[in-house]
Amino acid sequence: MKLSLIALFICIISSNYSNDTRPSLRSRIKELMQSYQKRTIIFNEQYRPNQKTPTHQLQSYIEYYLRSLQYPFKIISEESDNDDLYIQYQLPSWVNLRFLNKKLSRDILSQCIYKSEISSSEVEQYLDISLGYNKKIQISFSKDHARAQVAIIVDDMGYRGKGYQLYKKIPLSVTFAILPFYEQSKLLAKESFKLGYELMLHMPMQPAKGRAYFSSDNIIKEGLTAEQIKSRIKSAISSIPYIQGINNHQGSLATSNQMMMDSVMSQVINHSSQLYFIDSLTSSKSVAYKTAKKIGIPTLKRSFAFLDNDKDINKIKNKLNKLIKTSYKKKLQIAIMHEKRSSAQALIQMIQSFKDADIEIVSPSDILY
Predict the structure, then answer these.
(1) % helix / strand / coil in the chain, to the nearest 5?
(2) What is the dihedral sign for C-alpha 240, 302, 281, 159?
(3) In a domain, 108, yes or no
(4) pLDDT average per 10 residues of sequence, the chain (369 residues)
(5) Contact, 203 vs 246, CB < 8 A?
(6) What range defines the domain where residue 129 resides?
(7) In a domain, 43, yes or no
(8) Residue 109 shares a structural domain with residue 155
(9) pLDDT recorded at residue 352
């Protein structure tokens, strides 16, 4: 049945073009995906609150959205006068308020004039939102600090694989590291940004042994001059919108080479917007973290074993369970997994364990800035 549908789909595409003008199947599929995405955005925006939405409906929208994210909430205080509204919600300590702020401003409240501020005390963190209606609407969220924080970076994004389709539904602040130069990289970045996720450039670099798992000629490799390395970094950065940082794809050889890392970091620090660098630590000899730190680039390095070297879901869950246990001692862990369906399934099945352990999933920018 599935093969028949695929065959029918191909025939429909082919029938719309003569043999002389028919574009490649890949190009046509890309056009259809872009068209579908635009129609989806238009449809979704029709069901977003806007400046004319009544106050009571706005509150219902927000509370429905919190439930859809599986964020339990408690109303601490509520005051309303005509169309004015002030409401304060208490959320669990594992909620990432920066991520919630991105979700609200880019999704459910994207049609509203939106101002927000995040602050904290020794025991609590706060998100205060003002909506620019003709009426006065203030929404506040508060939560206790979590027991520990974990950053989970998902490498090898850039094509719409089965893993991505699951990851993009996770209501926690996982970070997507996107490979450049794939046909779908830019579209995926735009969609992921709208959904609130933090994005990184997953920069392909030469491994010490074995083949490079990337087909582009633009990897960072031996034999390049400093200017060629800088040019490739600049091109890769400009190919993906909304990125806030960079990490290395493979690169055990490249990240161990001081000249190559000097060239990479000099381009990163001179970028028009501040970018951070995460050393994926694919080699114990890596100098990437040290080099970034030395010249003033905000930087972190992987602190926990790769979560999914084995594709078995139960083994990945065991790794995630170890990550939870060790995070109590380190207070902050930087972990990496990959765009695999089994990895996404394992993380989804472990979400409740992170919540029960009072661990906040954070993005690198939450830590560095």
Answers:
(1) 40, 25, 35
(2) negative
(3) yes
(4) 47 46 61 54 54 82 96 96 89 99 93 92 96 81 98 93 95 98 93 98 92 73 97 97 98 98 98 96 98 98 98 98 96 96 98 98 97
(5) yes
(6) 55-144
(7) no
(8) no
(9) 99
Tokens of 113: 């004039």
Cα gap 196→176, rounded to integer Å: 11
Are 82 and 183 members of one domain? Answer: no
Considering the domain boundaries, does residue 159 fall inside one?
A: yes
Based on the structure, what is the number of domains in the chain? 2
Q: What is the CATH number of the domain that holds 69?
A: 3.30.460
Helices (H), 204-257: 226-239
Structure tokens of 1? 């049945």
DSSP assignment of 39-69: HHHHHHHTTS--TTS-HHHHHHHHHHHHHHT
Residues 179, 212, single domain; the answer is yes
* Size of the chain in residues: 369
Using an 8 Å Cβ cutoff, are 299 and 289 in contact?
Answer: yes
The verdict on 131 and 154 lying in the same domain is: no
Element (H, E) at 87: strand 84-90
Query: What pLDDT is attached to residue 19?
Result: 46
Among 185, 186, 246, residue whose Cα is nearest residue 220: 246
**Nearest 10 degrees: CA dihedral of 41, 46, 47, 49?**
110
pLDDT on residue 83: 74
Q: Is residue 5 part of a domain?
A: no
